[in-house]
Amino acid sequence: MAGYTPILDWIDSQAPRMRRLVREWSDVNSGSHNVAGLATMLHRLRSAWEPLGGDITELSLPDEETIDSVGKIVNTPLGKALQIRKRPDAPLRAFLCIHMDTVYPADSAFQRCELLDDNTLRGPGVADAKGGLAVMLLAVEALERSPWARSIGWEVLINPDEELGSPGSAPLFDEAARRNHLGLLFEPAMGEGDLVSERGGSGSFELIVHGRSAHAGRDPKAGRNAINAMAEMIGELNLLELNGTTPDGVTINVGKVEGGGPVNVVPDLAICRFNVRVKTPQDQSAAGEGILNFFRNNERKRDGIRLEMHGGFHRPPKPLDPQTARLLDHTVACGKELGLSLGHRRSGGVSDGNQLAAAGLPNLDSLGPRGGKIHSPEEYVLLDSLPERAKLTALLLMELASGEIKWPKSIHEGHEGGLE
Ligand SMILES: [Zn+2]
How confident is the model over 120-131, as pLDDT tens digits? Predict the structure, then answer.
């Protein structure tokens, strides 16, 4: 521990700078669809990372595809992602990641930071995840100041679309999983600083029901009522959860329905959007199969009705496998050396860590600061947790680099490619 102390002390000396960065970054609106705001953020982040001497790449992402209220596919542009890589040929390589987008759109009323007391900053994205951006930056800066830096390579990804479910950046996680040995993500910590041990998975689906319109009074029999068909199908969807067709760990939530028009017309269109949560990869396969069967049966039995289904499990479950458990143990041990007693728990939420885990990269995804009320106009960060969490990751990186923590330098099985 002793050798690491001067570097960790340096992080403490940077606390005022961390506060300033979080404040400046949070005052820039970077809602997931605010492409101009995201470009400003990208520019600022680029300047912050440039002195570290890695290879910086701005990555354009494909448009986000969504289904609009008349069942058509709509393309929406996304911001660019920022990738920084240093020592990609080092024997041990860490992947570090957090998003620059927030849930607050350009026209949100919540735009600026306010200091509530000496240690509490309220503002859009201060914890989720502008604080995490500062923690990640300082942890890597600290590593680079240490004599062990040359033994470890790192790859940083800052994506602009996490709050949308990473529709454009998802493939980047699969690539990163093939190049690195472990992943560190800087989503906000839970409660008093706890780490997330495992996460369930999530899928979002859109069911589009096409019927046939007709005059409701003159010729109702000529029509096929899309809303009636959809209503019956929603009943079946809910039964899918209740009657045990899907396992215990599965819940289905019909979240939005649209369709119809004047009441004297038999409606020819209805759209139902639903979310499915699963606990394990087995749950996910069972739920996926159940939904597919539900769709096929209805396609077959409904004369004059045409169905379309979009969506899927964009966030697979993130189980606590042995490698992830090891990483968790090492991190808790680093916390102990810093005087922190870190607990860990399961979370019902999802993150990019889900994607990484599914691609085979063991990762911890809640290394960001302590705070709360995220995704609300009351979002806050506890400022003393900024250096605290930066020290946690810096110590973990230094112990990995120095060999004090032995980490297997082989990539998770199931991955091919030029790695030892
Ligand atoms: Zn987040």
Answer: 999 999 999 999
- Ligand 1 centre to CA of 261 (Å) is 38
Cα 344 to averaged position of ligand 1 atoms, centre (Å): 18
209 C-alpha vs ligand 1 centroid, how far in Å? Answer: 34
User: In angstroms, rounded to a whole number, what is the distance separating the alpha carbons of residues 285 and 293?
Assistant: 12
Task: Quick: pLDDT tens for 355-383.
Answer: 999 999 999 999 999 999 999 999 999 99
Q: Does position 243 have pLDDT exceeding 90, yes or no?
A: no
CB 184 within 8 Å of CB 367: yes
Q: Specify which residues 122 forms β-bridges with.
A: 114, 380
Determine the number of helices (DSSP H) and then strands (DSSP E) in the chain.
10, 18
Q: Which amino acid is at 63?
A: D
What's the gap in Å between 284 CA and the centre of ligand 1? 23
| Contacts of 301 by beta carbon, 8 Å cutoff, 6+ apart | none
Residues 274, 103: Cα–Cα separation, whole Å: 20
Examine the pLDDT at 180 and tell me if it is beyond 70.
Answer: yes
The answer to whether residues 71 and 308 touch, using CB atoms and an 8 Å cutoff, is: yes
Q: 384 alpha carbon to ligand 1 midpoint, in Å?
A: 19
User: Which amino acid would we find at residue 393?
Assistant: T
Cβ-contact 240, 252 below 8 angstroms: yes
Measured in Å, residue 346 CA sits from the centre of ligand 1 at 16
Q: What is the pLDDT of residues 58-93, one digit of tens each?
A: 999 999 999 999 999 999 999 999 999 999 999 999
Which 3 state secondary structure label does DSSP give 20? helix
Compute, in angstroms, the gap from residue 279 CA to the centroid of ligand 1.
20
Which residues share a beta bridge with 84? Answer: 56, 156
213: phi then psi, degrees, rounded to nearest 5: -85, 155
Res 420 pLDDT > 60: no
259 token code pair: 């369709």
What is the 3-class SS of 207-237, one letter each residue?
EEEECECCECCCCHHHCECHHHHHHHHHHHH
Ligand 1 centroid distance, CA of 143 (Å): 24
> Which contiguous run of DSSP H or E holds residue 179?
helix 170-179
All domains in the chain, ordered by first residue? 2-198+318-402 (3.40.630.10), 201-315 (3.30.70.360)
Measured between alpha carbons, how far is residue 74 from residues 83, 254, 260, 374 in Å? Answer: 27, 21, 20, 28
| 398 SS3 class | helix
Return the residue matching tokens 């939904």. 291
Which residue shows structure tokens 């068909």?
229
